[in-house]
Amino acid sequence: MRIAIGEVRHETNTFSSVKTTVDLFKQRWWERGDEILSNHRGVRDYLGGMIDRAEALGIEVVPVFVATATSSGTVARETYETIKSEWNAAMRVAGKVDALCLSLHGAGVVEGIDDMEGDFLQYIRSQVGYELPLIATLDLHANLTERMVAEADVLLGVHLYPHTDCYDRGAEAVDIASRMVKGELQPTMHLTKLPLMIATSLTSMSPAKDINEICWKWEKHPGVIDCAFFHAFPYTDVPEVGVSVVAVTDGDKALAKQAADDVAQHIWNRREDFAPDVISPAEGIRQALAADGQPIVINETSDNPGGGSPGDGTYLLRAMLEADLPSACIGCIFDPEVAQIAHEAGVGATITVKLGGKVDRLHGEPIELTAYVKCLTDGRYTIKSPMGQGTPANLGKSVRLQAGGLDILVCSVSAQVLDEQMFLLHGIDVTACKIVALKSSQHFRAVFEPIAVQIITVDSPGLTTLQFSHFAYKRLTRPIYPLDHTAFLPTDRSVVDDERNS
User: Taking CA atoms, which of 27, 64, 319, 427 is between 20 and 30 Å from 286?
Assistant: First the structure.
């Protein structure tokens, strides 16, 4: 048996001014053929799970093409056409395969194409037809569409946030593909969409934890293969934005609908419970200083590069400088210009720079700063978090600046904090700091929760703010909660459509 694998992943923040080009994809992952195997075998990501499981089952893995970029603005149409061309060429080289396992995100937007994944799946079907089993893994923050469901045999979403189960979903995709090839499984899916957007919600806490448990209860039902709660990506201004549930069964369409609708109703009943607490950076610092023990982690969720923010926001940094903290660090401020100045000045120099706030003015003004150059690095390290463990990371030229009792990490490649490794790279032991500030929404928790005395989330103006009312949405399907409290979840969509058309 031969199973082809590949990946095309981008989480598009349509409010970002940074157009996503081939260069941004190549900054992350742009791989062909056997380099996919060497770069992902044993790594705790989707492709790693696919490779390891296939090899354990004695299945030949046929690597096709990988293109993955950090979350940013709309994907340039030319870039997307290049990706399709690369995929086409690689599939021709791959030859005949028995199934295809594909890692997608589910919230991709291209110039002129609202549903990148649906379009890409349809493009693949135009090449391989509809007889070939096609299983795709999706991010928990996917904005599901009926087109995706129509073009794939199975869509598997990660259940956890932080996404520590990517590897498991990749392995599951191979298991399902193998069973389909052997004729042991004839999957069918049902998608239930909700008129609902929710803020970044930990799955280790209620209400998301409770919804997952309902999904897992359904998965124990005979005939149910998978049941996934998709939180959706609310920073994409397209009609299909919204929370959804996908249920997969072995040929039982009615059961798939029953499971998806049931979970959707539970989500809707708990919609008010997803409302986040919003506090300012200054308030977060006050709470951290009043807390006993260390480290206290403060995450600036509104400037999360993992969700399309630039990572050069200055609101939290400015508040930390104004507080004159005796023992604190922050990582990582995206500013290639300052990193270059520091590298030219060298370790031991004192430099005066304008730091951050350069991509746009939404995330704060640049800060004029005089700081000591403590450490210079190439920004390269290996991720140790269970989310993507073993993945090489590259921040580009990076520097540890010191201003009073504050250590500031500055990088040349925008990236959210997943673990403590970027701090260790620069000689910082986070457990020795009273306050550790970082740019991330939730993924950092996989590593920092076990070592932090307390975690405080702060919100300020930014492309990943918890406050959806700050965005000028123009294309959402309305009404949608919480922007519109008139939104409702129809129990029978056909009845509702008839009423609207009458």
Answer: 427
Other CB atoms within 10 Å distance of the CB of residue 261: 18
Three-state DSSP state, 364: coil
Q: Does some domain include residue 165?
A: yes
Number of domains into which the chain is organized: 2
Give the C-alpha separation, 240 to 193, whole Å: 9
**Statement to judge: residues 269 and 286 lie in one domain:** no
How many angstroms separate the CA atoms of 262 and 227, rounded? Answer: 11
* 298 and 265 co-located in one domain: no
Claim to verify: residue 323 and residue 194 sit in the same structural domain? no
Q: What is the pLDDT of residues 304-352, one digit of tens each?
A: 999 999 999 999 999 999 999 999 999 999 999 999 999 999 999 999 9
pTM of the full structure: 0.94
**Which alpha helices (DSSP H) does 349-434 contain, by range?**
421-425
Tens of pLDDT along 128-148? 999 999 999 999 999 999 999
Q: Do 325 and 452 belong to one domain? A: yes
- Nearest-angstrom CA–CA distance, 273 and 206: 8
Distance CA 107, CA 139 (A): 8
How remote is the C-alpha of 338 from its chain's centroid?
A: 27
Residues 69 and 91: beta-carbon distance below 8 Å: no
**Count of C-beta atoms within a 10 Å radius of residue 391:** 18
Same domain, 184 and 263: yes
Instruction: Find the helix packing angle between 116-128 and 77-94, rounded to 10°.
Output: 30
Q: Is 346 exposed, middle or buried (0-12, 13-18, 19+ CB in 10 A)?
A: exposed
Question: Cβ distance 322 to 314 under 8 Å?
Answer: no
d(CA 110, CA 20): 9
